[in-house]
């Protein structure tokens, strides 16, 4: 079975970075592809208990693919839900761009 921690770090890196560079005004095609990407995770993610937690979480909190800031915020909150469940500290969602896009100020 895969290393769930390494898989998690790699997946969060991919998802947060992709959200950080998602357009502020996505085209309908970009929106529908982002929605497909997110909706496929509960079906394809190779950690079955992670996938089923995510499926339940997405039912309560449908993805917001309307633009970069909304998507980044939605994803940060979903990651915080996992952090909370695992007893890890919550991340300050105001720092999402600093962590995943811009880097620290000077
Ligand atoms: P990670 O949680 O992997 O975070 C990587 C980096 O992201 C952090 O160092 C920090 O800089 C940044 N970060 C942290 N929180 C946020 C946030 N809210 N927003 C933006 N950036 C942030 N593991 C399990 O054991 N059980 C599960 O059920 C489970 N479900 C998962 C579901 C999904 C969809 C994914 C992608 C992963 C899941 N994992 C699960 C893995 C788990 O979330 C961690 O990736 C893993 O435990 C490694 O944690 P870490 O402390 O190295 O940092």
Fold and architecture overview:
Helices cover 68% and strands 0% of the residues. The chain starts with a helix and ends with a helix. It has a single domain, classed as Up-down Bundle (Four Helix Bundle (Hemerythrin (Met), subunit A)), CATH 1.20.120. The mean pLDDT is 97. Helix 1 (4-20) runs antiparallel to helix 4 (68-85), helix 1 (4-20) crosses helix 5 (96-102) and helix 2 (28-44) packs across helix 3. With 106 residues, it is mainly α. It is globular. The chain has 5 helices and no strands. Bound molecules: flavin-adenine dinucleotide.
Features:
single chain, globular, 106 residues, 5 helices, mainly alpha, binds flavin-adenine dinucleotide
Short summary:
This protein is mainly alpha-helical. The protein is built from 5 helices and no strands.
